[in-house]
Amino acid sequence: MKIKNIELVAERIKQSVVKNEQLVIFGDSDLDGVSSVVILKETIDNLRAILPLAQKENYPEIMVCFPDRQNEGYGLNQTALDFIKSKVKGGLLITLDCGITNYDEIKDAKAYGFDVIIVDHHMPVGGILPIADMVMDPKQPGDDFLFKEYCNAGLAFKLSEEILKDKMSSMLRESLLELTAMATISDMMIEEDENISFIFEGLLNIEYSNRPSIKTLVNLLGRENFNSKRDLISRLNAVLNSGRMEDHVAFIYLYLIQSDVSKAKEMAEELIEENENRQDEIYSLTNNLRAILSEKIGEPIIFEGSPNWSIEFLGAVASRICNYYGKPTFIYQKYEEFSRGTVRVPKGYDAVKAMESCSPLLRTFGGHPPAAGFTVINENIDQFKQCLIKYFNKINLEQQSK
């Protein structure tokens, strides 16, 4: 048994290459999304090289695009769509690590002349799918594939295997599995079933990676400074947690595909410095929030926001606050008309279900049970908080009665 539609998606991508069709790969801008884009892009590049009649110089350049999380939030959005439309005129648009809840945007992309494939690992809201040409998501209704807890890079790797089959070289497989393992750990996916083999194989020789970006970063951090590969991966993932963006292309994407060792070293040094500054900001924001919360001990959830808090840092802050207080944590950056936030919840809670219970109040939401995000119009903030309190009070009572 295979993931629903994986064979159809692989064949459609092969046909797009044969027909010299314009390809646009749109991925979320976190490490999982960026890794997914690298995996699919390098898979298609290899496919182009091995096709019998391949004339690589005739292929249109693959457009790679990411959302600007600071200004646009998560996933496919109208600003990004307008940017894509200004650069290419139709073709095949593939979304990675997003798309399954972008109902309006997928409809608009179709109206712009794109065929659309969604490759996502998030849960569709209410089981309803966007009107895409193909959807590959093990959590979609009707998918009987037993294991469903892949990160999106895991799905991209399985799609890569389906596309290339026995034409995937051992070196390419090893390189793509390194990204898959890092993304699986970064996205906090459950370490069961195939995720175990992804992590084991991907980390097997990662400290001696053939990918210049990873090899350079390991050398700069010093493999001798880590007690285990898990410690090393944790540090690598932290350094690669950069939100820097230019013209809808993530800096970490450019870094991960960098083939020049000297350029990779220069970029890695920038990422390390950026991470050190980010950790200082996270530490300051966490202490600031703990001071605020010292006056609100009795509340069942943590729900705080400020126009002075950058969404770039709030995921890490929310994780620390949630772990410290053991409460569902919702923190957000407040803009003029709306707020964009991040969510972390303790084990036993489901952030997505919590927000789904309040979905009429939200502009967008999505993610995973332990970690998610949302966008809410400011006039709905207080109602959203009260809705969440009601939801978690009900869940707490149900847990206590068991």
Fraction of residues in β-strands: 5-15%
**CATH topology (fold) name of the largest domain:** inorganic pyrophosphatase (n-terminal core)
Uncertain segments of ≥5 residues (pLDDT<50)?
none
Instruction: Tell me the distance between the termini.
Output: 37 Å
Shape: globular
Order of helices and strands: HEHEHHEHEEHHHHHEEHHEHEEHEEH
CATH level 1 class label of the largest domain: Alpha Beta
Q: Number of DSSP strands?
A: 12
Query: What would the average pLDDT be, to the nearest integer?
Result: 94
What report would you give on this structure?
The protein has 402 residues and is of the alpha/beta class. 49% of the residues lie in helices and 14% in strands. It is built from 15 helices and twelve strands. The strands form three sheets. A five-stranded parallel sheet has the order 2-1-3-4-5, with helices on both faces. The chain has a five-stranded mixed sheet with strand order 8-9-10-12-11. Helix 1 packs across helix 6 and helix 7 (170-186) crosses helix 10 (229-239). It is globular. The two termini are 37 Å apart. The mean pLDDT is 94.
